[in-house]
Amino acid sequence: MAIRFRIDKSHTDITAKSTIKKAIAFLKTAEVDPPYLLMDTAKVKQKVRSIGRKIGNSKVFYAVKANPDSEVLRLIHNLGLGFEIASEGELAILESIGVPKEHIITSNPMKSFRFLRAATEYGVDYFAFDSKDEVLKLRDYAPGCRVYVRLSVPNEGSEWPLSKKFGVELDEAEELLIYAKKKGLKPVGLTFHVGSQCTNPYNWNSALDKAKMLWDRARKAGIRLSILNIGGGYPINYTKNVVDIATIENNVNSLIYKKFPDNIQVYLEPGRAVVGDAGIFVSRVIGRAWRGDAHWLYIDVGVFNGLMESVGGIKYSYIVEGSKETKEWTLAGPSCDSFDVIDKRIELPEPEIGSRVLILSGGAYTISYASEFNGFSIPRTILI
Ligand SMILES: *Cc1c(COP(=O)(O)O)cnc(C)c1O
Q1: What CA–CA distance (Å, rounded) separates 152 from 346?
Q2: DSSP 106
Q3: Is the dihedral of CA 93, 226, 275, 384 positive or negative?
Q4: Is 231 in the pocket of ligand 1 (CB under 6 A)?
Q5: Torsion sign over Cα 266, 72, 12, 356
Q6: pLDDT in 10s for each residue of the chain, 384 residues
Q7: Distance 325 CA to ligand 1 centre (A)
Q8: Which domains, and CATH codes, for the chain?
Q9: Taking a C-beta distance cutoff of 8 angstroms, is the pair 52, 249 a contact?
Q10: Does the beta carbon of 111 sit less than 6 angstroms from any atom of ligand 1?
Q11: Closest C-alpha to 189, from 266, 287, 74
C-alpha cells in the first residue's frame, strides 16, 4: 500500500517533525501489525533534560503511572531520574531494572497494605499522607519513615483535576504534621498537585502561596521542613500549543526563591510531560459507516485499549493516510461498547479500510490505562 500520510503544520505544531518522521520511517520498514505505540527515545531524552533545569536544588521523580513500560523506565533510569510510585506492581518493575531505593518516593496518600509491605521491604523511605489513619498505618508498617503532607490546591485550568480526591487544607495539614511527629514519623516536607495537563501557569502561584503558609506554620510548631514537593502537572501539546516548561519553571523558581529558605530541596514529579509527546499510536481503520447524521470511523485503538483519557476530555491530533478530501467524523474504537467513542465532529481526510491513523501525543496515560476488554489486546510499545 502506498503511504500517503497527510501531514501539515497543524501536526508539526503539536509533535516534533523529527518524531513524526521517525514514526513514518518505522512504518515503511517494519512489518509490525497495528495497533502499537511508538516511543521516540530522543524526544524522551530531550524532555528529561529540559525538566527541572530552571529550578534550583531540584530532583526529578518520574511518575510511573504515566507510562510504566519497562524499556521506557529503563531509559528514564539511565538518564538519572528517580521515580514516584503508588503500587507494588510499579515497584516490581523498578526492582526488575535495578532502581535503588533512594531513587523512589511515593506520593499516593492512601497506600494499600500490599504496597506498604513491598515498599518498606524494599527500603522506600518517602511517603505522602493526608489523614490520621495513614499516619497510623505508616507507624505500623514503616516506623520512623520520612513523610510529607499533601496539601489541597486549586486545580482550575487543569484538564485532569486531582484535588478533590486528595489533599487537606492548611489547618488540617499543620495538625497532621504534628500528629505524624508525635507518632514517631519524620515530617520532612509537603506536597501538592496542581492537576494534570495544567495549562494555567498561575496554579503554581496559588499552590506555592499556600505551601509557604504551611511551611511557616510548621516552623512555629517546631517542625523544620526541608522538602518542597511540587508534584506533576506540566502540560503537553494535544490539539494546541500550551505554555512551555521553561516558562513555568522560571516562574516557579523565582517564587520559591522569594518565599522559601535557600537550602530547601525541591522535588518534581512529572509524568505526562516526560513521555506524552514522545509517543505516537499507530492504528488502522477497520470500518466506516453513516449513522443518523454523522460519518463514523472505526479504528483498532479505542477507549478501552489505549485512549481512556478521551472520555475525560483529552482530545488528540491525528495524521491519516488518506485522500485530500476531508470529512467530519465521529471516531470510535473497536469494542462493542457504545462508551467506546474517542472523539466527535473532527475533520479528517477520507481514509480507506485498512488505512493507518497516527494518534499524536499518545505516550502518557494510554497503555497504562489499557485493558483487554472485549478481547482486544493491549497495544505493544516499541522504542524508536
Ligand atoms: C499522577 C501523579 C503525578 C504526575 O502527574 P502529571 O500530571 O502526569 O505530571 C505526580 N504526582 C502524583 C502524586 C501523581 O498522582
Answers
A1: 36
A2: B
A3: negative
A4: yes
A5: negative
A6: 455 888 999 999 999 999 999 999 999 898 899 999 999 999 999 999 999 999 999 999 999 999 999 999 999 999 999 999 999 999 999 999 999 999 999 999 999 999 999 999 999 999 999 999 999 999 999 999 999 999 999 887 677 766 678 999 999 999 999 999 999 999 999 999 999 999 998 899 999 999 999 999 999 999 999 999 999 999 999 999 999 999 999 999 999 999 999 999 999 999 999 999 999 999 999 999 999 889 999 999 999 999 999 998 899 999 999 888 899 999 999 999 999 999 999 999 999 999 999 999 999 999 999 999 999 999 999 999
A7: 40
A8: 9-40+277-383 (2.40.37.10), 52-269 (3.20.20.10)
A9: yes
A10: no
A11: 266
Task: Count CB atoms within 10 A of the CB of residue 189.
Answer: 25
Alpha-carbon gap, residue 219 to 362, rounded angstroms? 43
Q: How many angstroms separate the CA atoms of 328 and 349, rounded?
A: 9
Ligand 1 and 22: CB distance under 6 A: no
In 3D space, the residue among 36, 42, 49 whose CA is nearest the CA of residue 19 turns out to be 42
Ligand 1 centroid – CA 83 distance (Å): 11
- Cα–Cα dist 201/180, whole Å: 32
Report pTM: 0.96
Helices (H), 4-111: 9-12, 17-29, 41-50, 70-78, 88-96
Residue 159 contacts residue 173 (beta carbons within 8 Å): no
- The one-letter code for the residue type at 123 is G
From the CA of 105, how far away is ligand 1's center (Å)? 12
Residues with active-site annotation:
336
Residue 65 Cβ contacting ligand 1 at under 6 Å: yes
- DSSP string over 166-226: S-B-HHHHHHHHHHHHHTT-EEEEEE----EEE--THHHHHHHHHHHHHHHHHHHTT----
Give, in degrees to the nearest 5, the angle at Cα 294 between 288 and 300.
35
Axis crossing angle, helix 17-29 with helix 41-50, rounded to the nearest 10: 160
d(CA 224, CA 184): 15
